Amino acid sequence: VELAVNGKMPWYTYGHEVHERLLRRLLSSRARPATVSLHLVRHKSWIPRRAPYLQSHGDAMAVVGQYYAQPWLSSRATFWEEKARGEKGFRVRNVVTADLLHPTNRGHKLLADLVVHAIRHEAAALGGDEPWDAADEALLDAPLPPPLFERNDEIADGIAVVEDSFRSLAMEERSSGFEWAESGLWQPRRGFRADRQGSTLTLQVNETDFMRPGREFDASLLILGLLRSSSGMANANVSCLGECSCPPRFLKGTEPGRYRQTSNGLITASPPYPCTISVALDQPKTTPGVLEIVGLCAVSNDALHN
Questions:
Q1: Which domain holds residue 68?
Q2: Alpha-carbon span 276 to 203, nearest angstrom
């Protein structure tokens, strides 16, 4: 599960409430998975007068993990000494991409090694002098403590519409050039795909599309999910065709230094329902690309203000 924190993350601010809600959702699931936080060190000096080693958000974000007695790992533990000495294979360009935030293939390998080491350490303990026992089972069955941040368990973060549910939103008679297809090798996704200038996808969204049993939800803001990569992707011009007055949006599909990922683009706030959305492919002037739209997310008003 990825929680992307690209901006500043000061201590004890609203961003940590999002982090806590994500962690509580994992810990309260029926399977009660083993969880560990993994923090990637930023290599941008965004915080004045702070040493490079301390530029990570990990120190601030670890407070939430500590509240729930969760272990956490940091990429600083894998290569910082080698990086500081400028050793081959451990320089900044070897471990993060051009944006100085996202790991390269080698950076991902180092992070994976850190997780593998933690798993081996725990396995050795379970097979040695710390076997699993009734006390561990009791901890699994224990209820979660009250949220660290007030009312944080009452806020609904958002609901995503993907796969066949997303496909059903398309108005075929008002769309052209897009096809429903699967893409991606390591993380296959299904969505609407087009590669010709002028291709248009029209979606009609109703508030009922975000209803879930036993859960009240105010779909105050809509976010479109498109695939983004460092090359080969087209852009999207997004506009509303209904009664709302939302401004047109331009969403970039190609972003140098980014590996293939789902990018979220704000398209409308407090829309009147039903909301009709038009997505038009816009080819870059240099290299033509493919536009892939994979989902739609609604965010509640509570989440926006917390």
A1: 15-141
A2: 6
